[in-house]
Design goal:
CATH class of chain B: Mainly Alpha
CATH topology of chain B: MetI-like fold
CATH topology of chain A: MetI-like fold
CATH superfamily of chain B: MetI-like
Number of domains of chain B: 1
Helix content of chain B: over 70%
Distance between the termini of chain A: 35 Å
Number of strands of chain A: 2
Low-confidence stretches of chain A: none
Strand order of the largest sheet of chain A: 1-2
Largest sheet of chain A: 2 strands, antiparallel
Order of helices and strands of chain A: HEEHHHHHHHHHHH
Largest sheet of chain B: none
Largest interface: A-B, 82 and 80 residues
Oligomer: heterotrimer
Chains: A mainly alpha (about 280), B mainly alpha (about 270), C alpha+beta (about 375)
Strand content of chain A: under 5%
Low-confidence stretches of chain B: 1-8
Order of helices and strands of chain B: HHHHHHHHHHH
Mean pLDDT of chain A: 87
CATH architecture of chain B: Orthogonal Bundle
Number of helices of chain A: 12
Bound molecules: adenosine-5'-triphosphate, magnesium ion
Number of domains of chain A: 1
Amino acid sequence: MRKGKIHIFLLLPFWVYYILFFFIPLGILLTYSFWLTTARGLVPTFTLENYWAIFSKKLYLIIILRSIRIAFIAAIICVVVSYPVAYSLTFKYKKMQDFVLYLILISLFSSYLVRIYAWKTILGRQGLINQILQYIGLTKEPLSFLLYSPTAVIITLVFIFVPFTILPIFSSLQNVKPELIEAAKDLGANNFEAFYKVTLPLSMSGVVTGFIFSFILSAGDYVTPQLVGGTTGMMIGKIIADQFGMRYNWPFGSALSYFTLFLLALLVYCLIWILKILKLRR
Amino acid sequence: MRTTRGKSFRFGVLDLSTVLIMIFLLLPIVIIVLFSFNPTSATVFPMRGFTTKWYREVLRNEIFISALINSVYVGLMVSCVSVFIGVLASFALTRYRFRFKEMMSYIVLLPITLPAIILGISLLSFFASVLGISRSLLTVTLSHVVFVTPFVVLIMNARLDKFDITIEEAAKDLGANALQTFRYVTFPLIRPSLIGTMMLSFGLSFDEFLVTFFVVGRKNTLPIVIWGMLRRGVSPTVNVIATMVLAISITLIIIANRIAKLRTLY
Amino acid sequence: MSYENTLLVIKGASRSFGQVVAVKNFSLQVKDGEFVCLLGPSGCGKTTLLRIIAGFETLDSGDVLMNGESIIDLPPYRRTMNMVFQSYALFPHMSVFENIAFSQFLKKKPKEEVARKVRKMLQLVQLEGFETRGPNQLSGGQCQRVALARALINEPKVLLLDEPLGALDLKIRKQMQIELKNIQEKLRITFIYVTHDQEEALVMSDRIVLMNEGEIMQVGTPKRIYNHPNSKFSAMFVGENNLLKGTVVKVNSDCLVISVDGLELFANRTINVKTGDPVTLAIRPEKLRITGELEGKSFGNQIRGKMVDAVFFGSVVKYYLRISENITMVAEDRITDESNARSIKIGDGVTLAFTRESLNVFPE
Ligand SMILES: Nc1ncnc2c1ncn2[C@@H]1O[C@H](COP(=O)(O)OP(=O)(O)OP(=O)(O)O)[C@@H](O)[C@H]1O
Ligand SMILES: [Mg+2]
């Protein structure tokens, strides 16, 4: 580690770019949320009207809460299904590790939009799942709730974003040396205790990162709900997008964004806080 | 006696869930590839035969070709700019001590903890109202760099944290000045990671839709064109495009792997 | 030490990291062609000092001179010395040949000359035929040789070695110690050699610099340091010693009489003390002679003791002898031939005899 002033030059391009294309735009968006849209166009003032407008219709609150719920469930499922994959990749299938990681990367690199679309065809009335269910005789009629429902949104979000949880969990599991687990077992821990007391705490950072990734990505997705969500699966992203598209009410869209962002940040913060407390008690 | 090593193989819950998840992860991709050869336009099982006519149609489609070129152009620009910014920042974060360093390493990651839609609309507001820049491939490029750079920093930090500084010291000790040390020692050693980050940057940019949607101008990128197709109704050409993109990215990954393992000096 | 052939001078060098003082007012002169060992426990500042000399660490105060000129403002690549790193620090992306040739490559030497020099170096470190291998295809000992060749090809005036044999197993370490010493004698290059292994320091060096907590504790030839430690630290760190606490009861013109737990011992008067001063005594196990009964006065000191244990170490046997209520001493006896093995049994009473010279005295 060196001291000196070189780091300033190294960080200069970064700061210039981020201030110009990240912080200023966010500031502008925040400013917009205090302006008004009238028949004659945008009026620069300072008013909280746009924020009150969120509470004026029940619909907005319902959709915001639904979005957060869907994103939360999707993120939980993402973590729950990623952990076994990352775990077995690390400790069980050492030889296949590269190959499987490669497959995960490929799924990440293949078109996001078309993958959502593929899920639509898998979940549809005539889709793969319904056909299989009918073929093996579990159902007579095709299940219609599979598509155009919150369930469809959750399933799709999970499989679109699961690479974003597998990879951080995998990399945090690299810190868990097999000797540590063996030492724990040697000291009398059973399999579950060894996992709960050693493996899990050491990989917690990856779990948290993965959760936050999939949670934020899901909450901000406005394509998946549009393609597979139907009316009951509508999410806030679509409404915000509309304010910047057809509706042309930027101030309201900005207020919606900041309100949602505030809720998301609050939730993530609480979650990290709870984890910290749990760790202290352990 | 409890044995932890050399346990005989049992196919348990862990394996089952792993296999299932991998299947579900790859299932859509398999479907996309298969149905790109389906003669009818409905994506209904079973397939009705095998044809390459959609491929020929896509290759004749000018909208597709120009969108592809646009996306490649944007992807290249984005990977150059974000790798430049990100690698320098990563060197600062891993090699130097300074105040607020800890905070800095969080700030770097902010753009990827922000929902894409909010990044998209804030950039839209910025370009449209303040700069008065008309939307174009330039605005797309500028926007992509914002969320690609954090990934570059993440990967490079991981690489540089592992980098054994004494190797650089050995070079200096043997008579290399700062520039020579970088050229003959540091650069060759981080080159695989550099190529990796360039690939990733390109890939992230190439496939980006959520932000691009708001900042794209008259010239479209590939995801925007695909989105249009999806909205207009299903056509196997979408599957064809996705398959071709997949093939290209797999090839690129393999090539990059090869380049990464070159030798130096004499 | 004659002034003319002094090569490297370190003057009052100090360096701290926050609260930790790594090197404290360190001064040393190194002669041309000398083999100097920096010896000390882990964390005493050896690496830091070496890095200061090499130019990787800055000084808080003090100076480093080479041939009478200060070099502290020179960057590492301008100093006429080279370093062998503890972790070898071989370039992982280069072959053995490229690693060794690196400095010559930077100097833009013609290819044939470089190839010839590399071949000579490989011969010196006995690695002929390894040119095209990569560092990850070498054993620890071979890596060590490459690191050495890579540093030596530059013909440095001073070679700095940071625990170069630390990662090797005992057998290869012993072998490399001899090889390194031979190479140093052949090339007549000044070696500054860091180690925390006292035996290594004793075997290899012309001069040992014993360090503790960033400071010099004692400087001297291996013989001097071994036979005449100047402090409790030196006595404890180099070799094995019996340490006894005592009080001076009488100061004669040439000898001291010291009382240890009621026993009276005689020592040469090497330090200035007064009657009543507390002192520490040190005596090496091999300087203790075990005899069955009291002998003549030739030894100067004789104590009665009882054998409590005997441990067999192959070529030597260590006897643990209780000489008073609280004091047990260790005596070492070399077995030259099975028949001369002693027939003392545990519990037997014995006499310990040792000379006045072999007893080292330090103030408490
Ligand atoms: N870059 C640094 N930052 C902070 N403290 C340091 C740094 N380098 C060394 N130290 C401290 O300085 C002291 C001396 O360290 P040094 O590495 O010189 O010891 P050493 O004698 O080489 O030990 P060892 O035999 O274990 O290698 C130690 O207490 C160490 O913690
Ligand atoms: Mg050291």
